[in-house]
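Homework help thread (please don't just give me the answer)

Our assignment gives two proteins as sequence + structure token strings and asks us to describe the second one. The first is just a warm-up. Here they are:
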Amino acid sequence: MSKLKVSIVGGSGYTGGEVLRLLLFHPNVELGQVTSERFAGKSVFKIHPNLRKITSLKFSLLAELGASDVIFLCLPHGKSMAAMPEMMQKAGKIIDLSGDFRLNSLAEYERWYGRPHTLPDRLADFVYGIPELHRAQMRSAKYVSSAGCNATATILGLYPFFKNRLVDLHKTVVEVKGGSSEGGNSPSDASHHPERSDTVRSYKPTRHRHVAEVIQELSFGQPAQIHFSATALGIVRGALATCHLFLNESLEEKDIWKLLRAEYGAEPFIRIVKEKTGVYRYPEPKILSGTNYCDIGFEKDPESDRLVVISAIDNLMKGAAGQAVQAFNIMNGFEETTALQFPGLHPV
């Protein structure tokens, strides 16, 4: 099979580095250019030392970017929309990892991001980037906007219950605990933006931007309210969402099992975790480092109508680069798991 020429724009940050790591081992990819304005001319392993002796690629300037079949756009929020017209001239397909095109509504974008959108007419052109929800649209899509990490963990945990209208739409409470890499910058980038340090950006007790994505994907035509907080853990990778749902009908554990299996049983990257005993009887982000899996577990409160759903991901993989490569595979007719088969490490 002929290979697609793929370039990465904004390749010096964590997400760009992870996309690069994955694509280096993708059998259907010919890597074109990896851009960085600050590090142009330097070997990529100077910034991503795990790629030492894996690739001889060097960063190039955005102005030097040539044509590609596909571009992974890994620029910061607010920068992607500025670059998008030029990127659309450079490649037939684009996967954007910023938040610029995740929301369908211009009003909601401006409400949650606090800035005007410079390409409002393009919002409808992007498919929201969770494959488990939008696989069919991705197959014919030219543009995908990869979902936020906290949003991904939350949506995948909640989706079966909201889709089947089994919950009180105004009482759901979600607490996401994430690693420092949720800030998105590599250490070299963060050192030049101390006011945007990773740890600070991981704390958002109220009004986190990812809530807008969660509401968009779970409303199903009815207004939903998600009470959401994000706090940081003393880890680099990982996001753990603990979701408190209040059921509007009586469900036993066997009913919940049946519901999750019906929705996710055939999904290659979702695993249902429910053991009676042992250290790993609930989802644990630590064992997902470097993988594209989302582990989902649950426990029904025997004293009330509360259901606790727990979902875990690696925020840089299923929450960013891995999910983007999964979408890339779907968009181009490749086996969905290509370059994403790493099962994680144990012990860690």
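The one we have to describe:
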Amino acid sequence: MNPLTLRVIRDEHRALAAMLRSIPLLLAEHRRHDRLPDFAALRAMLFYVDEFPERLHHPKESELLFPKLRARVPGVRDILDRLDQDHARGERAVRDLEHSLLGFEMLGVVRRDAFERQLHRYVDAYLRHMELEEREILPLALQVLSAEDWAELDAAFEANRDPFTGHAPGAEYQDLFRKIVAALPAPIGVGPAL
């Protein structure tokens, strides 16, 4: 069995991980050349994280998938609680990062180090979060959830249309995704190689 839900979650994780790993590389490249980064592109990337993973992906995990697992495997409650806490903190964390980026943009290089440290902590925490879900939660879900559970989850996750997983962006997101794709290096985007 290969439920659509698991494919969507894994595809979204891969796309987000690739973008998150690219941001520090872009910043390092700008620093190496003693240039300021493309702030508009960085804002677009952080807005994407807030708009898609935080508001679309995480709520479906916390509100649909995790309760089903709690009901069937009480021993996994601690891990699910930790992941739910990560989800609850995620929106605030990305907003704090957006504010830190704004400080860097408005006040210049005196805020560069603080923003980059905060970004590295954010990226590291996010990658660990997704790795825990992939290693512990998704295989468990495959073992314990019923066909009826998967049908319900698949119907919900099928509605996810993250453009970084192969879906065309909605009209309101087209400019946003063009900006991100232009800034990210290949193979994720069409920006210059790092």
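TA reply:
I won't write it for you, but here's a hint about the kind of observation we're looking for: The mean pLDDT is 92.
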